[in-house]
DNA sequence: CCTCTGCTAATCAAACTTGACTACTCAGGC
DNA sequence: GCCTGAGTAGTCAAGTTTGATTAGCAGAGG
């Protein structure tokens, strides 16, 4: 699974109603074009495709207010919202070492209730552990790792990466449990840029108040 | 860049001459179908495409020895070899957090001379360092990281991942410098599975003798 | 001796991704 | 008044990826 659907659904949902260029700008603001395949072509394709599949509702709109061709606006449907949360939960839960999906999921994690976020992340840890022991047990041949030669370095890399990610995930869980960030149902959601006078988001036991961009 | 071209070129090169099914089997043996897009369709497509581009030479061959449709054999050309080493060097040098390309590159690293491998990996470390400071300096707004809210966690993840990779890369460099594995021009290359009685490949100062699979 | 299963080897349509390109408008300079 | 450059909004062809499907032959079992 690529990250594009999650990103586009999430962006449209945050706006309530958005046209392609808006989504594109949003994702650029996120830096998503650098760490995922959220390039213009893919974004427009995803919008059309998901509209065809009933995840988005299409609104033909006036020939644009400020130059350029007429634009189409999109709105997320019931089915789209379901799909969005399905993708989000899956991205948070499953360990598949795709950086783009993972990053996108973190960007949207606050759309879930705090308790669920924690529990999904714990499931993720569990998945990493399982994957780790599957690799060490199954991929190391009975006769010891020396059978593998330099190929063993690939496994070594995987294990190293998995361990690093587990560590990071544990840290994130701890920060969330200590009250960092604003989750679903906890007041003004955080979108984009915060107002002045906020605490370090990595510090413990704090609260954010956001302002809609 | 996806890993498929590097994988396919490398596999064909190791065989001297190979048909698609053989390449497919090789990559499956590597586990590449699990950590990259080396699925049948992509492999056959890559073979045809690279043949069209002159990186591979196509040989129409007899209707197969053991069932199935007639098969086409491929052989790497001069241009293909150049492209192979270009891809390999690039994959080793540049930090782009694509696990598949990186894994593939490690699998083929011994096709380079030992000294070059070390120097490319050092360049990689350098790239990671640069990327790291670009992120910390450029992506943290002037007014401090608290501006970012939970979005800061994405950066946090990146930094964490980059650090883990730098650590792993330094370890690999150290092992190679201590004499691990058999590199280009150092005798029988390692391919696939080793003969009995070998040392731990992670141990220092040892030598492998391989046997062609 | 006939059918079923599994292996060999590959193809194909549908979906997705990429990078280049189109087309339109407005503000400001000449 | 007209031209240029920057920004807006999106399309398109070429290439890539995916998952399903095709098709031939061998050996096992009935």
Provide a brief overview of the structure.
Two copies of one chain form a homodimer. By secondary structure, chain A is mainly alpha-helical. Chain A has helices spanning 4-15, 20-29, 32-35, 40-52, 78-93, 99-108, 114-139, 152-177, and strands spanning 18-19, 56-60, 72-76.
Structural commentary:
- The structure is a homodimer of 213-residue chains.
- Helices cover 55% and strands 6% of the residues of chain A.
- With 213 residues, chain A is mainly α.
- A 3-stranded antiparallel sheet of chain A has the order 1-3-2.
- In chain A, helix 1 (4-15) packs across helix 5.
- In chain A, 37% of the residues are buried.
- Chains A and B meet through helix 6 and helix 8 of A and helix 6 and helix 8 of B.
- The structure holds a DNA duplex (30 and 30 nucleotides).
Secondary-structure topology with pairs:
The structure is a homodimer of 213-residue chains.
Chain A: H1 4-15, E1 18-19, H2 20-29, H3 32-35, H4 40-52, E2 56-60, E3 72-76, H5 78-93, H6 99-108, H7 114-139, H8 152-177
The structure holds a DNA duplex (30 and 30 nucleotides).
CA radius of gyration of chain A: 20 Å
**Quaternary structure type:** homodimer
Shape of chain A: elongated
* Structural class computed from helices and strand pairing of chain A: mainly alpha
The percentage of residues in β strands of chain A lies in 5-15%
Strand order of the largest sheet of chain A: 1-3-2
């Amino acid at each position: 699974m690529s990250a594009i659907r999650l990103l586009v659904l999430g962006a449209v949902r945050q706006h309530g109603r958005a046209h392609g260029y808006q989504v594109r700008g949003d994702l650029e603001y996120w830096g998503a074009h650098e760490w995922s395949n959220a390039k213009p072509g893919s974004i427009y394709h995803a919008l059309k495709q998901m509209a065809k599949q009933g995840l988005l509702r299409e609104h033909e709109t006036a020939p644009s207010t400020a130059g350029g061709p007429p634009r189409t606006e999109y709105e997320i449907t019931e089915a789209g919202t379901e799909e969005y949360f399905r993708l989000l939960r899956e991205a948070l839960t499953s360990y598949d070492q795709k950086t783009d999906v993972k990053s996108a999921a973190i960007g949207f994690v606050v759309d879930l209730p705090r308790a669920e976020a924690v529990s999904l992340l714990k499931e993720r840890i569990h998945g990493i552990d399982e994957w780790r022991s599957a690799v060490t047990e199954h991929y190391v041949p009975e006769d010891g790792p020396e059978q593998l030669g330099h190929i063993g370095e690939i496994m070594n890399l995987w294990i190293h990466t998995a361990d690093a990610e587990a560590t990071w995930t544990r840290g994130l869980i701890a920060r969330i449990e200590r009250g960092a960030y604003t989750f679903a149902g906890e007041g003004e959601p955080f979108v984009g840029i915060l107002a002045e006078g906020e605490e370090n988001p990595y510090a413990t036991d704090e609260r954010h108040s956001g302002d809609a961009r």
